[in-house]
Amino acid sequence: MIHPRTLRVGYDQTISVVCVVGSELNVNLNRSAPPSSRFFSVKCTPSVQYSIGPSPQKTYHFSPIPLNGNSVLLIRMSHASQHENDSKLSVWYYGVSKEVLGRAVLHLTAVEISLDVDADRDGVVEKNNANKASWKWGPNGHGAILLVNCDSEWTWRKKPDREQENVSKVSDLKDMSVMVLRTRGPAKLPEGYKLTMHISQGDAESVRVFRPRTSETKNNTLPGKHFYKYFVKDYPLVLSSEVLSQEVPYLGEAAEMNFYVEGLKFLDKDFSGLIRVNLSLLEPISPGLPETPIFTDTVVFRVAPWIMTPNTLRPVEVFVCSTSDNNQFLKSMRNLVIMSGYKLKICHEFVNRGDRWMQDELEFGYIDSPHHRFPVVLDSPRDGELLDFPYDELLGPDFGYVTRVAQKKDVSSLDSFGNLEVSPPVTVNGKHYPLGRIIIGVAFPTATKGRNMTKVVQDFLWAQKVQEPIALFSDWLYVGHVDEFMTFVPAPDRKGFRLLLASPDAGYKLFRGLHNVGHGQAKLFEGLGHEEPITVDEILNDEGLQAENNYVQSCIDWNRDVLKRELGLDDEDIIDLPILFKLVVEDKTEYKAVAYYPDMVNMIVLGKNLGIPKPFGPKVNGHCALEAEMCYLMEGLGLSCTFIDDFASYHQLLGEVHCGSNVRREAFDFKWWNLEM
Amino acid sequence: MIHPRTLRVGYDQTISVVCVVGSELNVNLNRSAPPSSRFFSVKCTPSVQYSIGPSPQKTYHFSPIPLNGNSVLLIRMSHASQHENDSKLSVWYYGVSKEVLGRAVLHLTAVEISLDVDADRDGVVEKNNANKASWKWGPNGHGAILLVNCDSEWTWRKKPDREQENVSKVSDLKDMSVMVLRTRGPAKLPEGYKLTMHISQGDAESVRVFRPRTSETKNNTLPGKHFYKYFVKDYPLVLSSEVLSQEVPYLGEAAEMNFYVEGLKFLDKDFSGLIRVNLSLLEPISPGLPETPIFTDTVVFRVAPWIMTPNTLRPVEVFVCSTSDNNQFLKSMRNLVIMSGYKLKICHEFVNRGDRWMQDELEFGYIDSPHHRFPVVLDSPRDGELLDFPYDELLGPDFGYVTRVAQKKDVSSLDSFGNLEVSPPVTVNGKHYPLGRIIIGVAFPTATKGRNMTKVVQDFLWAQKVQEPIALFSDWLYVGHVDEFMTFVPAPDRKGFRLLLASPDAGYKLFRGLHNVGHGQAKLFEGLGHEEPITVDEILNDEGLQAENNYVQSCIDWNRDVLKRELGLDDEDIIDLPILFKLVVEDKTEYKAVAYYPDMVNMIVLGKNLGIPKPFGPKVNGHCALEAEMCYLMEGLGLSCTFIDDFASYHQLLGEVHCGSNVRREAFDFKWWNLEM
């Protein structure tokens, strides 16, 4: 819908006007007619189009039209001018006997102006998309996308590019969204006119715009063929939190100029992600008076959310720590990872300083746009000895970094990212979550005290929106991480995955079965020097342990009910794994749970290969009954179990395989902007 | 949709369970069956309802049902228990020859629990509204409403009630939303069970909940008949930013307990207004282990937005300042206000300390809910000598107060609330704004320097949402307020109002007309001792003044185009008033506009009576031509003009009638929650 601009035209004057093609000028004829005018007529050169409102009664061609109180002349230009003032329009005013009383003359210069973005999300900046100024979710939606420029083009003396006021390297431009200013018109704008790009104060915190020092020609803006200059100084800053408005060059004739837009802020509680960039044509008035914007074109960007990757996505790299005591574990992990066909990355001791909990210090995710995508590590406020690893070792070219700073007193064990997982894609009561749902662990919402994931991280996760989080109850565990009682594995049927849950009931059932068939004297922990073996019957006869596991089962059942409800799961989508827990005293009066034997659910999932903590369960005919049950349950899904001995180096330190590793995975094929929100 | 709770039932055990009526227990029969069980059967007392899944094949009544891997028993209770454990259910397990292997017995206690709010927005807290946990805008919408408790029950030593941790007076309860906890069941909950009310950490900043120390009985919660206790100490605090979860009493049998909920925070950039309050039933485990929430009921509130009142609403009170030099003005105002039938409130000099700009220090608005409504003054960060007036003189019982604190360096003349207005209701391209749209003035968005309304106030205004703001260009004015060039008056036809705009073109046209009929020597400012008279011809011959007014007209036209677009107006909805401006130098290099003669558009609108700055225009046959034109234009709308001499006491200080007054108006009949958003 075109909203015409009011233009004042005095009689017996000649004025020069710039008109943007596609816009409309509205002249109130009566307002500036000579006194006693009764009629008027209009003449113009062919490039000018006009209409008169209200529509005059039919008259002879060129015969004067009666002037009334609300006579309006609407003027448009069909195409850009080649020279300044090359189009003309005049209004003649007549008296009662049609004598000429005065004449107003307009000299018109038409320009085409379009600020363009990739509003249709195909990776190419199309021309003047009708929807470029608004955002709509979904496959039929529209609106351009911005990445937070959170990687670092430099690997040495690095910091995230968004923290530098300039383009940090020419290669940095590919992390930015291209915005094209397309103009057409005379070689120069008429004296005093200029183009200005501008953003609001609120948006300025979240975005920066650069441009090349001189023009890039049309041929260089073909898709995939951006031509970059070699020097950073060739890309001056146009807009930032310090500069909300700046003149940009008008290049003359048919021209295109690329701009490069970078996001600075991730979505959060106080930032919903929408950003507007405007381009205005300014008309001069006279010195000391502000220039008037007579045409404004606006484009919208949405900042891409940070997205997590579930176990069902293909792995790329596996990260583990090397410590003085985990040689055997490392070897088993290397075998599993190499055999599975993925890369193993070892974090050495001089970096990890003895902190082996690779899962807990960071979470891998990514940000995505039609023009570019790269992994982004979310750094936990846990800040163990691994605290520098995400920044020092991961941040780099096309590897982004984001963190949330919490006060030390607000950080607990629940802020470790073993307590941050994500489900595979699900549909819940007809609502699709094609990117799955984030899962975190907290205290019961009813708890008057208890540990929680810190608010700044929770706010960040909820603000991303595309993987709407679910809060489980994990404070019943001593360590308190959701990965101690649940995981997801791929499956060929049903919803494409199974939820695995630790289950003391399943454990007791298995042990009772062993007892019933005469294996009550089989021993757990056999052959482990550092742990006293114990028989199946001893476990079954320990009423205290049974009571503790009843409690643990009720905690897991509570979470099971939440997961069924929030992920739309049936009982058939869930597999109970035979795992026992025991309670230990925390803070003298509170009891919290730890795994009784290596916690098999705390596994690493690498495609169809599972790396599972070796449980050291009771042996039946030379085979561990827990391993056998696990293999039986997983092989039905086409999954292969590798049992990894993590007893001394992880289990006894209250973690397992999953806690001690991390997997970077491929991104979803599904594009987040195709979500229906 | 009911999501059943997993219940573990061991064989050869009798367990006691509490079940909330309307919820469902899910027993996995296989999980806890004795080994070798092949069949089962279920018996229960009449108040228990159960179903078996998957549905068993037809069998003889009471004959055992085959047990398979996923046999599930779903249990419900049809109504509340009178006594603890008064309902029973047992599951019998059988072997392959149907011999009894074991029996699990449940002793059931059923309770009804419902946390209720006025989700249907009729002022009455209905029982267990199916939509109470979500918010939907519109006349067919739902969701309860919360007021920010921003008035002060005390008039002495007052502060807004929301700033006090306790109920400040028993009368304060009527500013709060009533929430009712309805329970039914045995006289006491079984040992160790309890009810807990809780909120999230995020919501806790925005809400407080109180309850009566002991129960209020059912009869006292009838609509409009709330029975309040006499002492504040009878209303202990339940939830606040310090206490996120607290036990609340279970009163036994059929009981209702009122809770009182107060909002603490207005909508703003980081607060969208939705708040959840939860009530859970906790099951005890054993000392040292957290109690488990086995049932949670949730209600949602939305905090009411702050709403402005346009000129088309009925006035209630008119506020003006008394100063040492405005006696004559005050007298004229009193006559007009009394004649119009409204109340005049005078702010005396010991309060205003010479600051006469009553319009600029504050804006009247209100907050509304189905249970209560009261006016709320928005205090400007302008903070002239009137700065204490809104807090000291207006804040009180059922008169709320809100402000936004800005840094002194960010505050300019554009933060005065002569620069904050609101349109009457409009429809724009099919979109309804039944509460109108807020209008503020700023610099051009393209300006590299310029004055703006400070960000904290703009963020507040935008966050209210129900009167989506429009930003005009007012920085061209020396004072910089939108009320210097526009106002709205009621009209009997078209959209129910007209937009009045100052128009130098209309002024020149009128003066040229006077000249043409021989009144070129008529004088403006005649009889004013303190201003040199000037003739119509002298004005018409002043080319500099004409140029200045051309510029002013272009600024107003720019705003006219924005207003037409954003309010959906036609030219016929706009009336141009004959008003000239002149430019003065500001900051040595910039020119800004002030009114040449008293700025008639800067009027006070009191129903059909307009109080207009007396323009002291040229006299024709003893009558001021400007007044005559004004009366002609307004009388067509059925409006009556009173011209008020504000020349020395306001106009020469760069303000007029509107700047020097403020009107508190009645609220809209339209309820904001009926908006379709």
Report on the structure:
The structure is a homodimer of 677-residue chains. With 677 residues, the first copy, chain A, is α+β, with helices and mostly antiparallel strands. Chain A folds into three domains: 3-112, Immunoglobulin-like (Sandwich), CATH 2.60.40; 117-303, Immunoglobulin-like, CATH 2.60.40; 307-672, L-arginine/glycine Amidinotransferase, Chain A (5-stranded Propeller), CATH 3.75.10.10. Chain A contains ten helices and 42 strands. Chain A is elongated. At the A-B interface, strand 17, strand 18, helix 7 and helix 9 of A face strand 17, strand 18, helix 6 and helix 8 of B.
Helix-strand blueprint:
The structure is a homodimer of 677-residue chains.
Chain A: E1 5-7, E2 13-20, E3 25-28, E4 39-44, E5 48-53, E6 65-66, E7 72-77, E8 87-94, E9 100-116, E10 144-146, E11 177-184, E12 194-198, H1 201-204, E13 207-210, E14 237-239, E15 245-248, E16 255-263, E17 274-283, E18 292-303, E19 307-308, E20 315-321, H2 327-340, E21 343-347, H3 349-352, H4 358-361, E22 362-368, E23 373-379, H5 389-394, E24 400-403, E25 420-422, E26 426-428, E27 431-433, E28 438-442, H6 455-464, E29 470-473, E30 486-490, E31 497-503, H7 504-516, E32 523-524, E33 534-535, H8 536-541, H9 543-567, E34 574-578, E35 581-586, E36 590-595, E37 604-606, E38 609-613, E39 619-620, E40 623-624, H10 625-635, E41 640-644, E42 661-665
Parallel strand pairs in A: 1-3, 2-9, 10-18, 20-21, 23-24, 28-29, 31-34, 38-41
Antiparallel strand pairs in A: 3-7, 4-6, 4-8, 5-7, 8-9, 9-11, 11-16, 12-15, 12-17, 13-14, 13-16, 17-18, 19-22, 20-42, 22-23, 25-28, 26-27, 30-31, 32-33, 35-36, 37-38, 39-40
